[in-house]
Amino acid sequence: MVQRVEDREHLRELARRPLLLTLIATLHVSGGSLPEDRAELYRDSVNLLLYQWRANRCFRNCDGQPLSLPEPILRECLQKLAWSAHKTQREQHDSNGVANISRSLLLDVFEPLLATLGRDDLLAYLEQHSGILISSGQDHYAFPHRSFQEYLAMSWLSSRTDDALSREVCTDPVWWRETFLLAVLEQRKKPRPAIGYIEDMLETAEEAVETIRHQVSVLAGLSLMELGLTGLDDTGFPRQRKKIRRLIVELIEDSTALTIEERAEAGRVLGGIGDPRPGVGLDENGLPDIEWREIPAADEVSLEDDAGTFPVERFYLARYPVTNAKFQAFIEGDEGYANPKWWEGLDGGPDSLKTPRRSEPNHPRERVNWYEAMAFCACLSDRLGFRVSLPTEWQWQQAASSGNPGQDYPWGEKYESGQANINETRGDAGSHNLGRTTAVGIYPQGDSVQEVSDLAGNVWEWCMNEYGDPVNTQTSGTERRVLRGGSWIYDRDFARASFRNGFVGPDDRYDALGFRLSCSSPIMKD
């Protein structure tokens, strides 16, 4: 059982609390299996606690008679109490843990039981035997874990009018998020009602303020993920899934719509439900879909450290870094990563792959070494019928400066907070520091003039040439190769268009090493 709990994220977190661990163990012993998801865990746990509550005959009222607790009324009272407490907790701006339930609220909600049970008997039993409500002293009570509060609140709202759940969620989608997701999970095996919840929520949000609409769109995407409706294969509810994708793409493309943290989550969710943006995933043939951007020629591009001056002919650069979806297709293909053909001329070969730190399909692939990037290019060139390669660092610099040799960033002369996924807290550039990669292209305000994304931050990008001898673009050798662009780990100085990184060898794989494709003349799609 211990290993099975460790393997399930929704159980690991709950198992840290002794009471909930006891419940998980009890459910395992009584049923022989563990819940498939957290909604099932809470449902089974509530049922178990209610059964134990009602089955307990050792507690008697003041007349010595066993207490009689009608289960339907008891369950409804608990659900209403959880909803009322959760709602009040939000109104009081108390986001810490479970709600602090006053005795007066408890007695008011449990009024249907008081006619036969008596106030003192009810309170005494709650304090001594229930398990589902815990006395916290000073005439206050609480649920044993916030998840029970949210699950029971969900049960109350789901049993009300058809739009009760959506109306409540649209008052504050962040606060009611888990409540809504639990309602969706309850219908996971037969998702039609859950899709109805999502549609109701989206319709209700149309009358809400812009912030609420944005939050609801992302919550709708999270709901699809909970239902297992992931990826671009629209088998099942295609109309609803396409609508939700469109709403989230619109958020990402509007640079003013979200905070940095919200934008990162929206990108992650879009990756989960299928990112339809051109250039992010795979095409209809299972090959990397690439959005090429034309980069203008330059008479000369001067490298830092007196490393040389180079002319740049017009070329094309991929709009986005290579994503997990694209690199994974290379790994899994029958003629992909393991094929020795793609490694010819390289001093590195197929190796034990390193799992990316972030596995979302639309995030840049990281933990990739230079040899792997080169093998990817060789394989893709063969499939596309024209040469695809890593850019040289002078090509890369020409693109990152938007064709303006004196420009430090793709968007302009100076760093502007929130324009790129870097660690702004290093170097006092700002307050943003996500501490991870993000989906590609979610900083549209940071694009270059040619609409190339993520040239500053997110991941370092391998270039073709050597660091110590830039003119050398030969594929053989083990000398250090250049990295450009900075990353989510580093500050604004490293993200400058002209900054040269030669800190690592071509066989190194770190959390922030990725790559981008270039070519001299692509065969454009119709």
- Following the backbone from N to C, one meets helices and strands in this order, namely HHHHHEHHHEEHHHHHHHEEEEHHHEEEE
Strand content: 5-15%
Estimate the helix proportion, in percent: 25-40%
The CATH superfamily of the largest domain is paralog of FGE (formylglycine-generating enzyme)
Question: How many β-strand stretches?
Answer: 11
3D shape: elongated
CATH architecture label of the largest domain: Alpha-Beta Complex
How would you write the strand order of the largest sheet?
1-3-2
- Helices, by number, come to 18
CATH topology of the largest domain: paralog of FGE (formylglycine-generating enzyme)
Main beta-sheet strand count, sense and barrel state: 3 strands, antiparallel
User: Structural class of the secondary structure composition?
Assistant: mainly alpha
Overview of this protein structure:
It is built from 18 helices and eleven strands. The chain is elongated, with a radius of gyration of 28 Å. It starts with a helix and ends in a 7-residue tail after the last strand. The strands form four sheets. It has a three-stranded antiparallel beta sheet. The protein is 40% helix and 8% strand.
What descriptive keywords fit this protein?
3 domains; 18 helices; three-stranded antiparallel sheet; paralog of FGE (formylglycine-generating enzyme); mainly alpha; 526 residues
Topology (elements, then pairings):
Elements: H1 2-6, H2 9-14, H3 18-31, H4 38-55, H5 71-91, E1 101-102, H6 103-109, H7 111-117, H8 119-128, E2 134-137, E3 140-142, H9 146-158, H10 164-169, H11 177-186, H12 192-205, H13 210-226, H14 238-253, H15 260-273, E4 292-295, E5 298-302, E6 309-312, E7 315-318, H16 324-332, H17 370-384, H18 393-400, E8 460-466, E9 481-484, E10 513-514, E11 518-519
Parallel strand pairs: 8-10
Antiparallel strand pairs: 1-3, 2-3, 4-7, 5-6, 7-11, 8-9
Helix pairs in contact: 5-9, 9-11, 11-12, 11-13, 12-13, 13-14, 13-15, 14-15
